What does this fold into?
Amino acid sequence: MTFGERLEKLCTQNNLTKTQLANELHISASTLSGYLHNRREPDYQTLTAFADFFNVSIDYLLGRTEYTKPLSDSLTPEEGELLGTYRTLGKNGKNLLVQQAHLYATHLDN
It folds into this structure.
């Protein structure tokens, strides 16, 4: 999904017209149209304004993830700690950690 398609989807989900969005973000209708039709790309400040306005992550707007919120917002403290540990490991360590997690998941009761 392109940036413009995501923006269109967010407008629809929020019952917001393009005119309303342009007014809210203090941008011209033609500029917004360029974003919606992928003829223009927003600068950092405008991209941040879209993310803040719709309360979504910039990664979502850019198509880097399908999650509208940053992943860290949906993690428990324990999940965050595990993810943090995983990210500090090298390739072999990551593989071993995943294998260990699968062993625990298949052999232990919840």
